[in-house]
Structure formats: structure tokens, C-alpha cells
Amino acid sequence: AITLAPGLVYYPDYLDRSAQERLLQSLREITKAAPLFTPRMPRTGKPFSVRMTNCGRLGWVSDVAGYRYQPTHPETGEPWPAMPKQVLQAWQELSGYPHPPDACLINFYEQSARMGMHQDKDEDEFDAPVVSLSLGDTALFRYGGLERKDPTKSIRLRSGDAIVFGGPARLIYHGIDRLTPGSSDLLPQGGRLNLTLRKVEKPL
Ligand code: MD3
Ligand code: FE
After folding, report:
1. Which of 172, 194, 199 to mutate to test the pocket of ligand 1 (most atoms within 8 A of CB)?
2. Which of 95, 121, 133, 137 has the smallest set of CB atoms within 10 Å of its CB?
3. Å from CA of 41 to ligand 2 middle
4. To the nearest whole percent, how much of the chain has pLDDT over 90?
5. Ligand 2 centroid – CA 119 distance (Å)
């Protein structure tokens, strides 16, 4: 593992090819039960270019009313599918946090999708890290500091990479600038899937 900054640890090739294929198969099952939806910006309703779904007890959603975690899919009204054991195992191995995650947000990027710089602060528990797993095409990931104006660095996240943001890195600004088309043959149609595992609620 490579420490990129205090609290920010990068695990290149964390999942080997067969683990990536196994995770992709689980995600195909999840998206059958909980289809990808297009989140929208609060107030304006402007659509995100990234499509999303979730697994686990809680899922992150965004619509004209705001950002929030909720126990059901915004379009089907059904509970989110369970988290695959493989995902829970990655959390146990990487997070160093003594409780299982509540939420796994699944982001799907087509070639032109991006995610603007933002902080993840919709959770009640900031003592837990966020764990990210990447599948498919390489993404140019940018991260900065605790203020939007802080200088930024970029790294490429490749299929199978994991990255953990905890402690002093938990609230840093970050985003995805672009994908590298054709950089992976994991997804037959190209694009990228990213999973973010989170503890949302404070444990008892
Ligand atoms: C830094 N996702 O879902 S993953 C997100 O690749 C999100 O889809 C990006 O930002 C993606 O909120 C980046 C890396 C990541 C995830 C969570 C973080 C970086 C983070 C939480 C805090 C700080
Ligand atoms: Fe984020």
C-alpha cells in the first residue's frame, strides 16, 4: 500500500482479475434488482452525468429536494440489495473500523461522465473512513485539501485499485476529471464502476 497523504492510502491492484470479474457479476445482479438511476442536483434539478445505485442497508440519493441516505430505491421504492460478502470483506481488510458499513454507493461512468470536486459530508460518522473500489476504465482522480481553494494532486485509478480516505483525509475535496477510453476490457461496453463503502450512522 502507498500512503499518498495522512489518512489517504492507495492499494494498486487490490483486486486481481478474477476478483474483479466476481465483483462485476455481483454488480450485474444488484443492478437487476436496483436499476441505475440518474441523480439530480438539489434545487436546480440538473442531472449528474454519473448514474448510480446502492447496496446495503442505506443508499445515497440526490434529487431536487436534496442529498440524503435512505433505505429504499428512489424509483422502485424497494429496499436496496444486500452487500456482497466480497465487499464486506474488503471493508474489513481495508477500513480498520470495527463495524460493518451501512452503505455502498455504486457509481457508473460512461466515457464522457465526470464528477465535480466535492466533499462527502452527508454521513453522521466521520470517524469511519470511506473505502473506494474501481472497476473498468481508468479514471483521473483529483484530490485537494479541506478547503476548495487548496492545491490539488491527481492520480489514475485503474480497474482493481482500492483507495481509503480516513482520519485527516476523510473530508478532503475530491472528484473525477475524466476517463481513459479503452483502458480496460473488464466491461464489454467500456466505462467505469466505482464502489464507495461507508459507515453512515454513529454506532450504538
Ligand atoms: C475522498 N466517488 O461517490 S472515489 C463519491 O470515483 C465519489 O466515483 C468518486 O467521490 C468515484 O462520493 C471518487 C474516491 C473517494 C471516495 C470517497 C471519498 C474519495 C473520497 C470520501 C472522502 C474523501
Ligand atoms: Fe465523493
Report:
1. 194
2. 121
3. 14
4. 100
5. 6
Q: CATH number of 2-198: 3.40.30.10, 3.40.50.2000, 3.30.70.360, 2.60.120.590?
A: 2.60.120.590
Tell me what pLDDT residue 148 has: 98
Residue nearest to atom 11 of ligand 1 (CA): 194
**Residue 136: nearest ligand to its CA?**
1
Q: Measured in angstroms, how far is the CA atom of residue 29 from the centroid of ligand 1?
A: 23
3-state secondary structure the chain: CEEEECCEEEECCCCCHHHHHHHHHHHHHHHHHCCCECCECCCCCCECCCEEEEECCEEEEEECCEEEEECECCCCCCECCCCCHHHHHHHHHHHCCCCCCCEEEEEEECCCCCEEEECCCCCCCCCCCEEEEEEECCEEEEECCCCCCCCCEEEEECCCCEEEECHHHCCCCEEEEEECCCCCCCCCCCCEEEEEEECCCCCC
Q: Is the CB of 192 under 6 A from ligand 1?
A: no
* Residue at grid coordinates 470517524: 127
Is the C-beta atom of 165 inside 6 A of ligand 1? Answer: yes
Assess whether the C-beta atom of 26 lies below 6 angstroms from ligand 1.
no
Q: How far is the CA of 143 from the centre of ligand 1 (A)?
A: 9
Every domain of the chain and the residues it spans: 2-198
Query: What's the rounded mean pLDDT across residues 147-174?
Result: 98
